Each structure stands twice: as structure tokens, then as C-alpha cells.
Give the backbone structure.
Amino acid sequence: MRAVIQRVNRASVSVADETTGSIERGLCLLIGITHDDTQDDLNYIVDKTLNMRIFPEESGDSGFDQSVQDVAGGILLVSQFTLYASTRKGRRPGFMDAARPEQAEPMFNELVDSIKLNSGLRVETGVFGASMKVEIENAGPVTIILDSEDRNTPRRS
């Protein structure tokens, strides 16, 4: 599972000109799911998202001192299968590594439910599988890429 996490001042997602989710200060996550993702992958993304110190303390504009929970921020989750695009061959990306919708949608919904349950924060979403317009005002800018595949990789010294 992959997540592109952006610290935002505000973010929204709409489908056919109707807003389906919006937040003020918080995190916007673009979520990609691959065919061999498990509950462990989901738990890793949830834990990292909720506990990563990505916000400055009230006294400063820079720094990475507080989590989204510490600042009572919102979370906007948007499914994005293109995070598993392969560009190794040709000029058109391939998506063989992305989970099929019938597998990815239940896992995405479980991710949403888990973040809601474990955080108590405002959690908003797009519409799975829809063509969406995502508007993001990135704060910093701060963009972090999480890949659950990295959870078993030892840190370099």
C-alpha cells in the first residue's frame, strides 16, 4: 500500500462538480493499493499517518513536532490506483501492480474506517473509482511518501 501524504491548509475532492469531502488544516492522503496488500500493510499506513510528526508547534512555521492528532487536524482520503503505475516500458503507464477494484475498494473502505476509529478526527473521502477533482493547498510544502513495503526494511545508519 502506498500513501502520498500532504500537509495541507485545506483540501477538497469533488465528483461531477459536487464536493464529496473537504477539510481545513490536516492531511490529504492519496492511497494506492496493490494486489498483495494485507491487514499488516493497512495497519502500517494507519499508524504512520496518525502518529507521524509532520506539523510545527504553535509557536513556529517550520519543524516537525506534532502529529495530525496533536493538532486535531482533518484527514482527506482519496483512492488513486495510479500510484502503482509502471513506466518501465513504452510511453503509456501500465497498472498491472494496482489491485483490481473488487479487491481495492473494500481495503480502501477498511482504511477509512480504521483511521476514523483510531483517531476520532474528521475524516473525509472522495468516491472510489470515480473521476475526481482534488484541490489541495499544500502547507510547507510538505509531501511524504509512505510505502508499506518499507515497514520491514532496516534503517540505514
Q: What stands out?
A: The chain has a mean pLDDT of 94. The CA atoms of residues 34 and 97 lie 6 Å apart.
